[in-house]
Design goal:
The chain is mainly alpha-helical. The protein has 2 domains: 11-164, no CATH class; 200-389, no CATH class. Helices cover 52% and strands 8% of the residues. The chain has a 3-stranded antiparallel β-sheet.
Length: 390
């Protein structure tokens, strides 16, 4: 098999391929170099193995949809657990298929040092591994993972060039911006976010717009929202789309509206998946950079509600932006964590979290229909995070 960047989305096929490839490979006995050599000698694409393993790991822990079972590489569970331990912190105990993430890190770590033509792609995949690894550790910042992250950035900055796809570059910039903020490197985080905005040709700013929050409100008041200005019109804007999305829970209140109805705002812009993801990234950076108070929460909700209005418009007359399952899940999850300023909104938040948790085990839509390619554009919560939040 020739090396390429083809991604496999049918996760049951992914695990079948992994079983076939490693059925007679003593993984626990091979060091990283020997493991890679074993694959290359059999003409197995290392990049495809990483894709298979990573997407199955994401399927059983984050996205769901026709998930059959967790799969672990034979004889590697304890070895993976010890290898992924950072400063005494072990990965979350409910994590499934942990050995697949361990395999991805091993392969990426080795290929980053030996591959020249695909150096950026291997480092990008290694960056994804670090994001997932840190997620499993929790809010404890790992100096080891931070050091690995910094090493990856140093290399990626040197090998960035116009030959890389815009999607890969944006994933790199978004992941780097988020992880920089997570590790308290706020200036670096802002720089990555600014570069991402330049790639997307957009400018996102707060603004105040007159509108109504209740059904019987006579006088309009100023409400905080976010305005998206484009330097160049996006080529991937889509108005509708057949991608299934999580169910949004309505407010079901006789007085409060589902969302603010703006009267003087210009027509809502169509937001592409990457633009939605970028707005949510700005929300996360804002949350981490400013004190946790009512003002910060309202500003974060302004980001979130901008995406919700684009993806889940209240009126059939409004233009609907296409989105993806991971991005929409993150959006609804973040709103549910912040909206608790009324009894009805608290009830909606709890019902929404329950719905997001229940959707994981449903067989429809399937994993391949849940836009797994958008996963690393989002900060989608894991199934156990959703279960703890309900």
């Amino acid at each position: 098999m020739a090396e390429n960047n083809k991604t496999y989305y049918l996760h049951n096929d992914c695990v079948s391929e992994i079983k076939k490839i490693f059925s007679d490979v003593p993984l626990s006995e091979l060091d990283d170099d020997a493991l890679v050599n074993n694959l290359l000698e059999r003409s197995v694409s290392v990049l495809q193995v990483i894709d298979h393993a990573m997407f199955y790991f994401v399927a059983v822990n984050f996205i769901g949809g026709s998930v059959d079972e967790s799969y672990e590489l034979d004889g590697c569970c304890q070895l993976a657990l010890e290898d992924l331990c950072c400063e005494g912190e072990y990965p979350f105990k409910l994590t499934k298929s942990l050995t697949l993430l361990w395999l991805c890190k091993r392969l990426c770590r080795t290929m980053c040092t030996v591959s020249q033509t695909l150096s950026f792609l291997y480092h990008l995949n290694y960056l994804k591994c670090i994001y997932l690894h840190q997620y499993l550790i929790g809010d404890e910042r790992s100096p080891k993972l931070k050091s690995e992250f910094q090493d990856i950035i140093d290399v990626c900055e040197e090998c960035l060039d116009p030959t890389h796809t815009t999607e890969d570059v944006i994933q790199y910039l978004m992941l780097s911006s988020y992880l920089s903020a997570f590790y308290y490197e706020y200036e670096a985080s802002k720089t990555f976010a600014s570069r991402c905005a330049q790639y997307l040709n957009i400018d996102v700013k707060f603004c105040g717009v007159l509108g109504k929050c209740t059904r019987f409100q006579e006088k309009e008041v100023a409400n905080l929202t976010v305005k998206v200005n484009r330097v160049v019109e996006s080529k991937d804007n889509k108005t509708s789309g057949n991608s299934p999305l999580p169910q949004i829970i309505p407010l079901s209140d006789d007085v409060l509206l589902n969302s603010v109805v703006f009267s003087t705002m210009e027509e809502q812009s169509i937001l592409s998946n990457t633009e939605q993801s970028f707005i949510l990234l700005l929300c996360e950076l804002h949350r981490r950079h400013y004190p946790r108070d009512d003002l910060t929460e309202q500003q974060c909700l302004a980001y979130i509600n901008t995406v919700i209005r684009a993806v889940y418009p209240d009126s059939e007359n409004e233009i609907k932006s296409s989105s993806s399952w991971p991005i929409a899940t993150e959006t609804l999850f973040r709103r549910s964590l912040l909206e608790h300023n009324s009894v009805r909104k608290t009830e909606r938040a709890l019902s929404q979290l329950e719905e997001l948790s229940c959707q994981f085990k449903r067989t429809s839509p399937s994993f391949s229909e849940r836009s797994p390619s958008s996963f690393f554009l989002s900060r989608m919560p894991s199934i156990w995070t959703l279960q703890v939040s309900t």
